[in-house]
Design goal:
The protein has 5 helices and 3 strands. The chain is α+β, with helices and mostly antiparallel strands and about 160 residues long. Strand 2 and strand 3 form a beta hairpin.
Length: about 160
């Protein structure tokens, strides 16, 4: 049996993940409701998402759903359990999943750094041009305008003198 996920959502009352999928063997669209048990406002969303995705009862159905999307749904549910509105929960998730270019990542702990790196890897893969893409151009050469005088840095000058 092969299934292809079409839509995935969360229901707050009762807490459950709802998956609309296509059963390819019978060519029918179906809905699967997966109840969420033992989840509180203090639970870890990524761990709960991994447990659901690896659950033998739901594994075949959730193959087409990314772990990131399940984490987002659990995050929305956790926000609801904390009393936040849907808009507030979405904004908080968006803030957690975005990278601030001014943030000093040297000050992050290993877990947060790994999370930021996975976000950057996902963004890179999303924006990457592949050979199969219709707008792929091999060996692009770009000349940048030299309108302003280039600034030299102190470490730049020192390294030139040493050589």
């Amino acid at each position: 049996m092969t299934f292809s996920a079409q839509k995935c959502g969360v229901c707050f009352q009762p807490p459950s993940i709802i998956l609309i999928y296509k059963d390819n063997s019978q060519d029918k669209t179906r809905q699967r409701i997966m109840p969420i048990r033992n989840f509180s406002k203090f639970s870890d969303c990524s761990r709960a998402a991994e447990e659901l995705k690896n659950n033998p009862r739901h594994k075949a159905y959730l193959e087409g759903v990314s772990l990131r999307q399940l984490q987002k749904l659990y995050s929305l549910l956790r926000g609801h359990l904390k009393g936040q509105s849907l808009a507030e929960s979405l904004q908080k998730f968006q803030q957690e999943e975005s990278i601030d270019p001014e943030e000093d990542m040297n000050k992050l702990d290993d877990e947060e750094l790994a999370k930021r790196k996975s976000i950057m890897d996902e963004l890179f893969e999303k924006n990457r041009k592949k050979k199969d893409d219709p707008d792929f151009i091999y060996n692009v050469e770009v000349e940048f305008p030299q309108d302003e005088q280039l600034e030299s840095c102190g470490w730049d000058i020192e390294s030139d003198e040493e050589i």
